[in-house]
């Protein structure tokens, strides 16, 4: 992209140089002595001057054509820059749209995880209560506890801190 911008600056400076050169070569053409400023008189004055000095007018015409060609190149280069900018903006807006869709899906999954974590916590507490009730009987029959390890049970839980989502363990 920097190369295209550098080329644009080179073209602009060349156009400016050609315009200065054309201005220095330009002849001050005046219509005939009777001060006739009609379009026909002005056209005739330019034709007469071109016949009298064909080399100068050929050079001025060449400068004008070179300026026109360079302005066409300049327009093409500026179009390239505009297209790349619009392409970047299009890609950026597509990425933002994809990001928003992904965040919506992630939020739905996080809500589901939190719902399941809540249900799991309820189920674990129910199982712990059952185990607490069964363990004395089980101990009397089998001489060992029914279920152990209920001192710290944790379940996953998704928490959002602004834009950052973290999965934490809640102790049940």
How would you characterize the overall build of this protein?
- Strands 1-2 form a two-stranded antiparallel sheet.
- It has 172 residues and is mainly alpha-helical.
- The mean pLDDT is 81.
- Helix 1 (2-25) runs antiparallel to helix 3 (54-142).
- It contains three helices and two strands; from the N terminus they run H-H-H-E-E.
- 74% of the residues lie in helices and 9% in strands.
- The protein is rod-shaped.
- Strand 1 (154-161) and strand 2 form a beta hairpin.
- The longest helix is centred in the middle third of the chain and has 89 residues, at 54-142.
- The two termini are 58 Å apart.
Key terms:
172 residues, mainly alpha, two-stranded antiparallel sheet
Largest sheet: 2 strands, antiparallel
Measure the end-to-end span. Answer: 58 Å
Strand order of the largest sheet: 1-2
Mean pLDDT over the full residue set = 81
Count of runs of 4 or more consecutive helical residues:
3
Which series of helices and strands comes N to C? HHHEE
Are there runs of 5+ residues with pLDDT below 50, and where? none
Q: Tell me the Rg in angstroms.
A: 43 Å
Q: Give the overall form.
A: rod-shaped
State which percent range the strand residues make up.
5-15%
Helical content class: over 70%
- Alpha-beta content class: mainly alpha
Structure summary, number of beta strands: 2
């Amino acid at each position: 992209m920097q190369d295209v911008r550098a080329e644009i600056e080179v073209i602009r400076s060349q156009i400016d140089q050609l315009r200065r050169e054309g201005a220095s070569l330009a002849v001050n053409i005046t219509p005939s002595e009777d001060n006739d400023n009609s379009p026909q008189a002005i056209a005739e004055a330019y034709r007469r001057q071109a016949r009298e000095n064909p080399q100068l007018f050929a050079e001025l015409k060449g400068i004008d054509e070179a300026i026109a060609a360079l302005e066409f190149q300049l327009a093409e280069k500026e179009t390239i820059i505009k297209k790349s900018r619009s392409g970047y903006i299009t890609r950026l807006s597509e990425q933002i749209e994809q990001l928003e869709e992904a965040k919506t899906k992630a939020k739905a999954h996080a809500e589901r995880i939190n719902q399941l974590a809540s249900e799991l916590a309820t189920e674990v507490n129910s199982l712990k209560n059952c185990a607490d009730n069964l363990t004395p009987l089980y101990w009397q029959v089998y001489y060992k506890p029914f279920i152990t390890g209920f001192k710290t049970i944790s379940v996953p839980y998704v928490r959002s801190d602004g834009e950052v989502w973290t999965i934490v363990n809640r102790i049940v």
